[in-house]
Amino acid sequence: MQLDFFPSRTLTIYLAKLFIVRIFAVLVMLVLVLMALDLLGSTGEILAPEGNGQAEILRYAGLRIPQLIARFLPYSVLLATLITLVTLNQNSEVVAMKAAGLSAHQVLAPLLLTAAVIAVFSFAFNERVVTRANAALKAWEAVEYGPVPQETGVRANLYLTDGQNILSAETLTGSGSDIVLTNVTWDARTPGGIVTEQLRSPRATYAAPGWRLENPRRFDVGNAEIAEPGEVVVAEALTPDRIDLQSVDPDGQSFLELRDTIDAYEAIGRRTSEMRANWWHRLSGPLSAVLMPLLGSIAAFGLARSGQLFVRAIIGMALGFAYFVVDNAALAMGSFGGYPPFLAAWAPFLLFALLGETVLIRTEE
Hints:
By secondary structure, this protein is an alpha+beta fold. It contains nine helices and eight strands.
C-alpha cells in the first residue's frame, strides 16, 4: 500500500469531492464580496456618462469577475485546503486513514490531484477569458466608460517616446498606417527633460512620416501663451510598426501572442525582461494551486485534542500567504531586471515546494 500513491479509489473520490466543493464555495464568497466592494467605488464613474445604466454596471461586473477569479483562485485553494484538512482532523478521519496504513503523502494525494486539475483549468481560463476581459476593460476605462470605438485592436493609455519628446494618447484603434490616436498630447522637451511646449489634440493620424494632430492647441511654456496653429505634424521618427510594439499590453495577450511579441522586441534589440517574466508566470502562476495542499498539510496532522490544531492551521495559512508575497516580490524584481525572468517566475514555486515537502517529511514521515 505504501508504494501505491492512490491506494483507494473510493477514498480518492471522497477527498476530491470535499476539496472541490470547498474551493468553489470559498471562491464564490471571495468574488461576491470583492465585486460588491469594487462596485461601491466604481458605480459612480460607470454611471457618469449620459445614457449609462444597469446594463453598463452588469457589463463592468462581467469584465471584472474573470479578473477576480484569476487572481483569487489560488487563495481559494489555500483556504479550502485548510478548511478540508482541519475538518478531517477534527473528525479523526486522518487518524483512521493513517491507521489503515496510508502515509501523509497518500492522504494528500487526492488533494494534489484535484489542485493539478484546478491549475490546468486556471491556465485555460486565463488564456481564453481573462486576457480578453483585460483588453476590453482597459479600452472601456480609457474612454471613461463611454462608447468604445467599434474598430478592432483598441488599446488604451499609450506612452510613446520620440527621442526626448513624448507622445501620449488615451486610445489607439486600427493598425499599420490606419492607426488612429485619440486625446493626444505631445510634449516637446529639451535634452534635460524640460517641457518647452505642449500640444493637445482630440485626434491624430499617420502622415507618413509623423503624426498629424487635428485641431491642436499649443501651450508655450516659456511665454505661457495658448495658440491654435492648425494641423501640425509631430513625432516623425515614430513609425506605425514601432507604435504597434510600444503599445503592447501583455495582460491582454494570450500565451502564444505574448511569445511572438517578445520575439519581435528581441529582434529590434528592445528590453524584454518584464514581458518574459510575465510569460513564464503564465505557467508558474496557475501551478501555485498545486502548492497549496502541500503548504497547508501541517493542519491535517497532529491530534486535534492536543490543542495545537488552531496553531497548525495558522502556520499553514502563513506559509501559503508567504508564498504569494514572495512570488509578487520576485516577479517585480524580474520586471526591473533584478532577477533573470525564469528565476523570478519559478524560484518562489520551487522554494516553497521544497519547504512544504521538508515540513511534511520532518513532521509526519
